[in-house]
User: Fold this.
Amino acid sequence: MSSKHIIIVGGGVIGTSIAYHLCRSKYKVRVTVIERDPSYRRASSFLAMGGIRQQFSSIQNISLAQHSIRFYQTLNELTCHRDLKQPVNFLQRGYLFLVNEATSEKFQERYQTQCRLGARVERLDRDAIRKLVPDLVLDDILFAVFGPEDGYANPRAILSTLRALAEGAGAQFLTANVTALEIAGGNINGVILDDGRTLETSALVCAAGPYAAGLMALADIDLPVTPVRQQLFRCDLPRRWPHRFPMIVDPTGVHWRHDDQTHSDVADQIVVARTNLTEPPGENFECDMERWETDFRPPLIARLPDLKTATLTDGWAGLYEMTPDHNPLLGEHPELSGLFLANGFSGHGLMMAPAVGSVIAELLTTGTSASIDISAFDPGRFSRDELFWDDAMV
Assistant:
């Protein structure tokens, strides 16, 4: 696709990563990213928890995560040597899944699968868990699965750094809203913006996150991507904690991590999340502060009683972009030539963004994704009733 113009709709971490990798490729392409809100106030990556893990149960997701971890290691080193207000701060403190009797069989099978597929994981007994996190109550815990290369980062810093890198590599970012698509003969040829401009393109990438279905409706495509609210809370710890928390995932679903501050005079903090499996779909950004006392705080302090005096300081909500099988849509749409999808990450967009940027850029420039097999995420799989399952979703 030498000297071609590629338009990406959506300037979050997915779209920006695709733009960066396209501009860094050996192929001569012109890249335009259309983002309607440069403040990113409602972008999923801007509001994310920042977890990055390779603990999945499919080779496809493990490969995407491992590639991304390597990228974030490099990005971390890059930003540490620059005077940035928001360093990426990728901290490989691990993901620690606590396992009780009810979940032991599932996690034992998952652990064996992850080892077989090449994920870096360890099975920890209670003594080993206590060495890692001394203050946890483990009376009901049989073992844990720990990913020592996993961790978490500052999601807003990742987004701003990726955008700076993409712009530095030659990508153009436009603040606009796409109101129509130009389609002829089964091919997508351009987009019409809210200011009346028409931009011609040889390929269009939909990276619009939880808003992707609305964009695809302009092409009369029913995209199976649904926005679902995810709520998070931030707490001040009662004192400077003697150790740093990994991402700890409790059997109840409550999970938390340290929220490291860049200044030593700021209180020690944690960020806490818990997915509501009955959350109704919709673009809901209102944080239900009452859930802190009813759903979050009780299991948190039961697992770590010293957090009883932690002070709630903040709560917010972002959107997951859910698909029927909780796995993404990656590749060219079967009904419209030139339309490529990178959607439906179901809470894993930030941790997959570097790898997704690489494989979609490869697909756009060479016609295939040779580095990582993404065929399981084919956008046409739902119409064929070929769902792809990975049971290691949080």
